Fold:
Amino acid sequence: MTATVLTARALLLDMDGTLVNSDAVVERIWRRWSERHGLDGDEVMKVVHGRQGHASMAMLLPGRPVQQNLADNARMLAEETADMDGVVEVPGAAAFLASLDGLPHALVTSADVALSTARMAAAGLPLPAVRITAESVGASKPDPEGFLKGAAELGVAPEDCVVFEDSGAGIAAGRAAGMRVVGVGARAGVHGPDVVVADLTRVRVEAAADGSLRVRVG
Structure:
């Protein structure tokens, strides 16, 4: 694979599937939810990655009241936060985050504060200083709000940011924000990121003299 080099001023990082492998928990929780609602678990799993839970529910159960989805989502988040069995880092995530120490970057996740804090800790990863969580936004990915807020908090123009994402919803959000997207993992490739890698062992970040970041992928 030929390496791709992207130049940026900040990196915006998704969590689940990008830094943290939480697939085991997500599968357990959502398949139980699917059974409760008489839905096909395989079809449900095609929808839920990258989105806030209530946004997934709105797609899967059209016509159900928003308040019911929000209440159901709160219960699901509590279940997920209590279940860290099988939560591990995506290969290379710890070294990748260590390489970003002191460089402009933010976590942009559809998880809430409690879940993101618990999962990063379970995976042995440090939390970036700047974090955009479910509480920070009014609209879930694939809406670009989270990534635009992350760029604004870092004081960097959207076009100068590179997003790291694994899901279709997240990649669409990054694109809608006018950002370049590095796809991470098997799910990412079919959703049209600018470049895709199997995991974060294939990514190197260096600070240039002018303050920009050189992101070597591949």
